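Expect chain and fold; see below:
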Amino acid sequence: MLKLIPATDRHHAAPVAWLNSYFLFSFADYYDPGNVHFGPLRVFNDDTVQGSAGFPQHPHSEMEIVTLVLEGELTHEDTMGNRRTITKGEVQRMTAGTGLAHSEKNETDKPVHLYQLWFLPNQKSLAPSYEQKDVNFLDTKNELVPLVSGQKVLEDVVYMNSNSTVYWCNLREGKTVSFKTFPIRNTFVYVTEGKLYVNGVDIGPNDQIRATDEHVLEIQASMDAQFILIDLPGSEANY
């Protein structure tokens, strides 16, 4: 079953002048009891942070936090002693575990566009940890590229403590990629730009597909497209 969620159904938040954000799930002051999570995917925020601004230090615990930078750069600093800049095409994973605090700031004069995803961890009380990798995912063509995963069969990806995998794809018009899944898994697709045809459903920029009980997704670009695909366990016992 495929559920299409159009871009217009995202929750728009601009609580301060420097932040423009779209929440795909309940977050902060937005709460919809029917839209809290999809499997272990608890948060998906599509954020643009203006220059010389950002999030001051704030705490987290018991969450796997993944940040993908699509444009610009974001400087991260945390109570583990990390101070790193995440640039375009890089992937960051932070295991909040038993607790930490961090800040995220745009120290340049140009906006930074990023996706931040939170996953419920597959274990409680993990030690906080951090990983960052230049995957250069924005330059790939016509293939699903794994970026971060807790499925140990995949190599050369950022590791997270979740039985899930985040993929990126740049798909040229007329090209098709197939993603084989199982009825016990869920699949989430979010379009960054362009248009796709997914198992008979047309989706455009910032639209979502949430797929359950499928065996395969056939994804064709009806125009040049960029999208993120997330493979997720369907039951809490497999998170």
Remarks:
- The mean pLDDT is 97.
- The chain has no helices and 20 strands.
- The first strand starts at residue 2 and ends at 5.
